[in-house]
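User: Structure with zinc ion, tokens only please.
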Amino acid sequence: MPPRRSGFRPPGGRRRGIALALTRVTVPREEACARCFRPAEDCLCTRAVRLENRIFVLVLQHPREQRKLIGSASLAQCALARSRVRAGLSWPNLSAALGEPAKPAEWGALFLKPDPRPSGRAIDAYSRRGERQGDLPPLTGFVVLDGTWKQAKTLWWRNPWLLKLRRLTLNPRAPSLRPQARAAGLSTIEAIALTLRELGEDPALAEALMDQYVRLVLEPAQRYLGKGTRHAPDGGEHAG
Ligand SMILES: [Zn+2]
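Assistant:
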């Protein structure tokens, strides 16, 4: 992940607290686009540039995360040709969550907890029995949980079929562009970009996705810094 991008200044010092508060702002229902849930003036549907990814991205989104101003899952849906965002709490299996037949063995799931003994790689893959794999297996797609840490944990436990997928953990080398509750925390779209790149997609695609994140989500959100904000009732810190 490149550390800096022109035109965007990651919040620091006093601004960090305000920016963290921003992560809890929700877009009022009446002002949200029906598809991307962004305010009309910042709607992603027509602004996002379509990227032809090969590896499918399935985002399982906690329902309370849907209208978060700084949420990035809708960018995945608008920008990635092979992606889907499903809001809900539980699905009976991978195919039901995806909406089409899928083989769990060919899919990965981004796991929340980093390995206490990291390998030094940006991403690690584990077999279903929990053994770390030297080389990343070719995957058809991967699942990302979108919500606060607490919400993501709820999604994890409510969908035991996720254990049938190959577990992936991230060890990001560059910090998130957005304030995170945990040092190694990444926004959903940052986690997606890093995973796509590490699973073998064109690095330029991951780069283009990150540029859109800055231009279409983070930069517009800066306008709201210091403005009146509406806080989500749960107000937890964000997991991904
Ligand atoms: Zn929209």
